[in-house]
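We were asked to recover a plausible sequence for a given structure. The inputs and outputs are reproduced exactly as logged, with field labels preserved.

PROBLEM: sequence recovery
POSITIONS: 181
GIVEN STRUCTURE:
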């Protein structure tokens, strides 16, 4: 990368020149570098493709969300609390961050603690799997601040296979399937 100083022709210029040069101005200095090349689609792995698609969806969602002044204010507050540069970054972080599920087992109670660090979860649901006919009646869902709790008090020895469905601010449904409680 070349640095250009005291040249009146390129002073303060920024952007692409043709398809080969990129001009950037940083702290009063103008830098010239070769233009970045797009990565070959043939060489990217399945994981890279999935990450790119996920990030593209996150950016589209961020643009939609930030049009609403109320939601933008929420994400500005979250950005400040999480020491992120701006609301846009907070929205992307919310979209990409997955909730944490912790299983706690006491003598006769099993509790799943569900939270998303730095952000809120809209809703938690418990559903029965195909293998089980219905949700056991001893399942209780509660919320305290930003943490949700799913409590179960098994009376008999038979265990049920259930699915926890977590819905976050991005309205993404995250499923924890075959939770044995």
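RECOVERED SEQUENCE:
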């Amino acid at each position: 990368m070349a640095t250009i100083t005291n040249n009146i022709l390129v002073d303060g210029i920024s952007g692409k020149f043709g398809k080969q040069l990129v001009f950037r101005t940083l702290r009063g200095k103008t830098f010239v570098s070769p233009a970045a090349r797009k990565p070959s689609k043939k060489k990217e792995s399945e994981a890279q493709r999935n990450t790119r698609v996920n990030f593209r969806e996150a950016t589209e969602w961020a643009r939609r969300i930030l049009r609403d002044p109320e939601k933008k204010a929420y994400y500005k507050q979250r950005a400040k609390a999480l020491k992120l540069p701006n609301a846009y970054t907070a929205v992307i972080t919310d979209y990409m961050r997955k909730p944490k599920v912790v299983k706690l087992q006491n003598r006769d109670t099993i509790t799943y603690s569900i939270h998303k660090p730095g952000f809120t979860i809209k809703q938690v649901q418990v559903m029965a799997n195909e293998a089980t006919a219905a949700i056991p009646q001893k399942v209780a869902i509660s919320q305290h601040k930003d943490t949700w709790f799913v409590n179960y008090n098994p009376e008999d020895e038979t265990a049920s296979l259930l699915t926890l469905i977590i819905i976050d601010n991005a309205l993404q449904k995250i499923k924890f399937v075959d939770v044995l409680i």
